[in-house]
Design goal:
Layout: E1 6-10, E2 17-18, E3 24-25, E4 31-34, H1 39-48, E5 52-58, E6 61-70, H2 71-85, H3 88-120, H4 127-141, H5 157-173, H6 187-206, H7 218-223
Helix pairs in contact: 1-2, 3-4, 3-5, 5-6
C-alpha cells in the first residue's frame, strides 16, 4: 500500500519493485523514482509523505537505488532545496562545511599513514621502504568516496590499515587481477587467503634486520618503479 513506508528491491520488469517477502508491487501512477545522490532532497521528500526505499545488495553492502515517492512531493521538495541553496547564508555555510571536512580528511590521512607505519613495523634497516609503502597504501585507500575499507568506520583503525595493506599488496605484488578463478563457491576467498599469507610472509621478512634481495622481492619491484610522492596531509618529516 502506498501510504506505508517500504524497503524494496528493483523488480524484474520496469516500474515494479519487490518487497522483502518477494511480492511484486507497482508504484502508484502519480509516483516517480528519485535517484540517489542528493541527501538533502531525499531527506525532504521523506518528510513529506510515504516513500519506498529501493536498495540492492552488493557483497555485504546495501546500495541505494533511490526512492519512489509522490511526484508532486518531489517537485515541491526540489524547489525548496534549490531556493535554500541559492541564498548567501547557504553559500557561507557550505564553504565552512567544506573547509571543515577538508581539515578532517587531512587529519585522517595523517592518522592512517602513521597507523600504517605502526602496522608495518619494519626494521630500521628498511625504514625508507616502510615509509614508501605506507604512503602508497594511504594514497590509494583514503580518498573520500573511494569505497575502500579505509573509509569505513565500522571497524577499528588498526584493522582498516591491515586490510588496506593486504589488499594493496594483493593487487600490486601478485597476479590476482589477471587470475582466472573458477566460479566455485568459496574459491575466490581461498585464493585471497592464500595471497594474504604470502603478503604476510613478505612483511614479516622486512621486520627483521636481514638483507633482502631486491631483484627477487615483488614489493621492492613495485615500490621502485617510480618516485613516490606523499599524499596531501602526510607529514614526511
Amino acid at each position: 500500500m502506498p501510504e506505508l513506508n517500504r524497503l524494496v528491491r528493483p523488480g524484474r520488469v520496469a516500474r515494479t519493485v519487490l518487497t522483502e517477502s518477494g511480492e511484486t508491487l507497482l508504484p502508484p501512477e502519480h509516483w516517480e523514482l528519485l535517484p540517489p545522490g542528493d541527501a538533502a532532497l531525499t531527506r525532504r521528500v521523506k518528510e513529506m509523505g510515504p516513500v519506498w526505499l529501493v536498495q540492492v545488495k552488493k557483497g555485504r553492502r546495501l546500495m541505494s537505488r533511490g526512492i519512489w515517492a509522490d511526484a508532486g512531493h518531489i517537485a515541491e521538495a526540489r524547489l525548496e532545496v534549490e531556493e535554500k541553496r541559492a541564498t548567501p547564508e547557504y553559500a557561507r555555510k557550505r564553504e565552512t562545511d567544506l573547509a571543515r571536512r577538508q581539515r578532517q580528511h587531512e587529519a585522517y590521512v595523517e592518522e592512517f599513514y602513521l597507523a600504517a607505519l605502526h602496522f608495518l613495523d619494519f626494521h630500521p634497516r628498511h625504514r625508507q621502504l616502510a615509509e614508501d609503502l605506507a604512503r602508497r597504501v594511504t594514497e590509494h585507500a583514503t580518498p573520500v568516496g573511494s569505497g575502500t575499507v579505509a573509509r569505513t568506520e565500522c571497524i577499528p583503525l588498526a584493522e582498516r590499515v591491515r586490510a588496506a595493506v593486504i589488499a594493496w599488496m594483493r593487487h600490486q605484488t601478485t597476479a590476482y587481477d589477471s587470475m582466472k578463478i573458477a566460479r566455485i563457491r568459496g574459491r575466490r576467498r581461498e585464493v585471497r587467503r592464500h595471497l594474504a599469507e604470502r603478503s604476510a610472509e613478505i612483511l614479516a621478512a622486512y621486520r627483521s634486520d636481514r638483507l633482502i634481495d631486491a631483484d627477487l622481492c615483488p614489493l621492492q619491484a613495485v615500490l621502485t618503479e617510480s618516485i613516490i610522492a606523499a599524499p596531501n596531509g602526510i607529514n614526511q618529516a
